[in-house]
Design brief:
Layout: H1 2-11, H2 29-39, H3 44-52, H4 57-69, H5 79-86, H6 91-108, H7 110-130, H8 136-148, H9 152-165, H10 170-180, H11 188-201, H12 211-226, H13 233-244, H14 247-261, H15 271-284, H16 288-298, H17 304-307, H18 313-326
Helix pairs in contact: 2-3, 4-6, 5-6, 6-7, 7-8, 8-9, 8-10, 10-11, 10-12, 11-12, 12-13, 14-15, 15-16, 16-18
């Protein structure tokens, strides 16, 4: 250990970069197989997996997301369109098709994107009728309402429907934070107030402790591009300095580390997403040694999400190297 530390310090040797695994299913072997077979035309395993998860709302949301992401490069129709056409009263088929339209719509942009989003709204409505206890259609609706510019009352109705079915729905809370952030329909103040209220009220070990870190990333993204010297290196460095000197940011990073990561209540669907969020926040806070076990838990499952604000995978690899070398000194 000492020899390694000396080598790093004096000879510039650094830990090797990790080869990242960007498959959306990550370490979920069953989901990887289901998505792969569905892309080959056999949606049976995907159907069976979602049927088995009908009341596991957390993992269900993740499976719908990953299955939809498998169609990112597809045109019209894709396998979810064919599945929904063959089984039009299956809410799972409708949900995956709706989410797939959102994913494929991002590639088209313009009027076609909005046409696909409106179609996804109708499919989600049908799924909600067919599976009235399921929060998944309502979480999906929050994303659609954000992009389509729904007013506050309409959004709050969808939020009430979601939380009536699952008060601590991880994906849904992230959707509401996005709606409340300044780059969409809200303000820094409303976004942080929501994130902090939820993090404080969430059950022990809840991943919602990470929500204030999501808010911090949204704040940093906005201020970097729209602050006094928006879009300049000077502004980017100013934002980093402001966060690093903010005691509240440090307290929220520590709370996520100690009250969620150190003792998680369960392994939730957005596990690697939230680990990446926490690792990014620890890096921004300069807490490199504390970040080492978080990077170990991430392993190869880098997610672009928070790192895209700072340069994507190269930023992840640099932060990981800092964490590994800081822990050996």
């Amino acid at each position: 250990m000492i020899v390694g530390s000396v080598a790093v310090r004096f000879f510039g040797r650094r830990p090797p970069d990790i080869v990242v695994d960007v498959n959306p299913a990550q370490d979920d072997v069953e989901l990887r197989q289901a998505a792969g077979k569905a892309c080959g035309g056999d949606w049976g395993p995907a159907r069976d997996l979602l049927t088995a998860l009908r009341h596991d709302y957390d993992r269900r949301a993740r499976v719908v997301q990953v299955l939809a992401e498998s169609t990112a490069g597809d045109g019209q129709p894709a396998w979810p369109d064919r599945w929904a056409g063959a089984d039009p009263v299956n809410p799972d088929a409708l949900l995956v098709r709706a989410r797939s339209l959102i994913v494929r719509g991002r590639r088209t942009g313009g009027d076609e994107f909005h046409r696909l989003l409106r179609k996804a709204v109708l499919l989600g409505d049908e799924a909600a009728v067919l599976a009235p206890d399921d929060p998944t259609p309502w979480a999906q609706r929050l994303t659609l309402m954000t992009v389509l510019g729904a007013d506050g009352d309409t959004f709050e109705h969808g939020w009430a429907e979601l939380t009536a079915r699952d008060p601590w729905h991880r994906e849904g809370h992230g959707c509401k934070l996005t709606y409340l952030c300044r780059r969409w329909r809200g303000s820094h103040e409303r976004m942080f107030a929501f994130a902090r209220e939820i993090a404080h009220a969430a059950p022990a070990g809840s991943p919602l402790r990470v929500l204030p870190l999501h808010a911090a990333d949204e704040w940093a993204l906005w201020e970097t591009h729209h602050g006094a010297d928006g879009g300049t290196m000077r502004q980017a460095l100013s934002v980093i300095h402001t966060q690093r000197e903010d005691p509240r940011f440090h307290a929220e990073v520590r709370a996520a580390l100690e009250l969620w990561f150190a003792r998680p209540a369960y392994r939730h669907g957005l596990w690697f997403h939230d680990l990446n969020r926490l690792a990014h926040a620890l890096h921004r806070a300069g807490q490199h040694q504390q970040a080492r076990p978080v990077f170990a838990a991430i392993g190869a499952y880098f997610e672009d999400g928070p790192w895209s604000y700072a340069g994507g995978e190269p930023a992840f690899q640099q932060a990981r190297r800092k964490a590994l070398t800081a822990a050996t000194r």
